[in-house]
Design a protein that fits this description.
With 327 residues, the protein is α/β, with parallel strands linked by helices. It has a domain at 2-164 and 198-224 and 292-308: Rossmann fold. Helix content is 41%, strand content 16%. The protein has 11 helices and 12 strands. The chain has helices spanning 11-23, 59-62, 80-101, 136-150, 174-181, 200-212, 233-244, 255-272, 280-287, 296-302, 310-323; strands at residues 2-6, 26-31, 46-49, 67-70, 106-110, 157-161, 164-166, 184-188, 195-199, 220-222, 230-231, 249-253. The strands form 3 sheets. It has a 7-stranded parallel β-sheet with strand order 3-2-1-4-5-6-10, with helices on both faces. Helix 4 (136-150) links the parallel strand 5 and strand 6. Helix 1 crosses helix 6 (200-212) and helix 8 (255-272) packs antiparallel against helix 9 (280-287). The protein is globular. This is NAD-dependent epimerase/dehydratase domain-containing protein.
């Protein structure tokens, strides 16, 4: 398979490139000029310089590809337009380039559970649920899906919607590991709140399956951890503490205190220009009743079954962070 990966220098992109190269696939990584490619060191790939917000840069990269894995996007932005410009319109630019290439490569778009918004604590989201994002990132990911599927008469398109992803190199959950390393366990009032989580290598397996399976075309799929098991923020920290051999003290924080701290952090970020790990967006995510989804459709149509235990994912992550000086 000849595969192009956008956003290849990121956490998921590096793992995907590594897996494809190990299979003997021909891997091209789309990276912005001057973009950090250190994570791709030692992985057999060709670098293509381009940006999904620059349509002219995309056509050469998609030429001759069998599959385009579209991972590029932004998770933080100051305005709604920041998210829409990259996550939504960037998807449109990429689809246009793929159509212009003329040979109908398959698009595997990496969406997000955030496009659906929070779930209830008693019922995980299924693919048929309507989009109900409650912040700009989720809104932009929902719009990216709509755009991609609007090209369905010209391109074979499939969408993967991962929940929170665990694994070495992940930065999204790193804040909570660092708290534990400092001897602190955060417990939010009104919880626990269930979270669907999945190991990065299981997400990679799902993406490759969606790139090859005929029944994936025209469909969106959640990918969930083994057996539909959920964790909570507190549970993740407990497993991290266990992996590191620590016994952190618990700091119980009420929702209104978390919101106040997050608002102050946003203010400091605006003044200093530094992106702090806590912000109002993260606070809202943490205080939602649940972020859960069902992997039943992917198992039923594609035969996909995640294989990595979440406890082991957290252990591997914690040890990697320590080994590489992130903790």
């Amino acid at each position: 398979m000849r595969a192009l990966i956008t956003g290849a220098g990121g956490f998921l992109g590096v793992w995907l490139a590594q897996a494809l190269a190990a299979r003997g696939d021909t891997v091209t990584c789309l990276l912005r000029p001057g973009g950090d490619a250190s994570g791709l060191s030692g992985i057999d790939h060709t670098r293509a310089e381009g940006d999904v917000t620059d349509p002219a840069s995309l056509r050469p990269a998609v030429e001759g590809q069998d599959v385009v894995f579209h991972l590029a996007g932004v998770r933080r932005g100051a305005t709604r337009e920041d998210f829409m410009h990259v996550n939504a319109e960037g998807t449109r630019h990429l689809c246009d380039a793929m159509v212009a290439a003329g040979h109908r490569p398959r698009m595997v778009l990496v969406g997000s559970l955030a496009a659906m918004g929070p779930s209830s604590a008693s019922r995980p989201h299924v693919e048929e649920d309507p989009f109900q994002p409650y912040e700009w990132y989720g809104e932009s990911k929902a719009e990216a899906e709509r755009i991609a599927f609007s090209y369905g008469d010209r391109l074979p398109v499939t969408v993967s919607r991962p929940p929170r992803i665990l694994g070495p190199r992940d930065r999204e959950n790193l804040t909570f590991f660092r708290l534990v390393k400092k001897g602190l366990r955060l417990e939010l009032g009104g919880g626990p709140r269930p979270l669907t989580m999945i190991d990065v290598e299981d997400v990679v397996d799902a993406l490759i399956l969606q790139a090859e399976h005929p029944r994936a075309v025209g469909e969106a799929f959640f990918c969930a951890g083994p057996g539909g098991k959920t964790l909570s923020l507190e549970g993740v920290q407990d497993l991290c503490a266990q992996a590191l051999g620590l016994q952190p003290r618990t700091a119980r924080v009420s929702p209104w205190v978390l919101k106040a701290i997050a608002s102050a952090a946003d203010g400091l970020s605006r003044v200093s220009g530094r992106k702090l790990p806590l912000n109002r967006k993260l606070a809202r995510q943490l205080l939602a009743p649940a972020w859960t989804c069902s992997g039943a459709k992917a198992e039923r149509l594609l035969g996909f079954r995640p294989r990595r235990d979440l406890e082991d994912s957290i252990r591997r992550s914690a040890l990697w962070y320590v080994e590489h000086g992130w903790l």
